Amino acid sequence: MKQGLGTQLRHLIELLDGSVGRIYDQAGLQYRPRYTPVMRALRQSRPLTVGQIAEIAGITQPAVTQTVGLMVKDGLVHSRPGLIDGRQSLIDLTPKGVRLLPKLETFWEATTLAASELEADLPFPLAQTIESAIRALTEKPFEARIGEAREKLLEASKSRSQR
Description:
mainly alpha; Arc Repressor Mutant, subunit A; 7% strand; three-stranded antiparallel beta sheet; 3 strands; single chain
């Protein structure tokens, strides 16, 4: 049975993140691959709101909120109320997070190199394909595409039953 697109994408993420996670574990780092977009955003500018991190990292605010919660538990970041708007939390690195950054830089460089080598083994550039898919889904969300496909199937079914 052929796997669906969502199943294939989840499996790809498991293969990639699983390997990266094992590398961090082998190095004795208490760090998850999902922390990387937040750490990279905070490396650029600190402190940041959840919304700012989401924008810089290109991920959703709920994903940032979940990830920051895990990072707080692991002692890598802390959250405090914003100065102007107390409802907005400011996220910043803890001293532990700051000390971890130089070690992570080496892993990130190695991961980038490994990703380039993976792409060289593929018949098409994976990153470019993913970017194109994201752009296409931003222009026309998947739920709209599913709705249109359902309408086509219903119309085809009606025309078959009228014969």
